[in-house]
Amino acid sequence: MARWKELADGHGLKINTSGLPAIASFGFESKNALAYKTLITQEMLADGYLSGNLIFSSLAPTSEIVDGYFDALDSIFLTIKECEEGRDVMSLLKGPVCQVSFKRLN
Known about the structure:
The chain is an alpha+beta fold.
């Protein structure tokens, strides 16, 4: 959670973190928070990470894997900073914005 905060601070972004160290999450303090969450998932998948704004940690990842995750996330945070400064986040999304919560389908 500290590295997320450090990364966000480095880009001048405001995030909040929550959860336990083993199941942690972060969110943006922005009107575009859900779009940013969607963008993170989309771009992390493109970089080979099945990741969003929630982490289920374990002892398996090496420092190299964790550093690679944060390197990938760094470029996305840069894009989010551009969006906070006026770039249209919706033009970057390849699909719909994620939903607020799980809803039953039946």
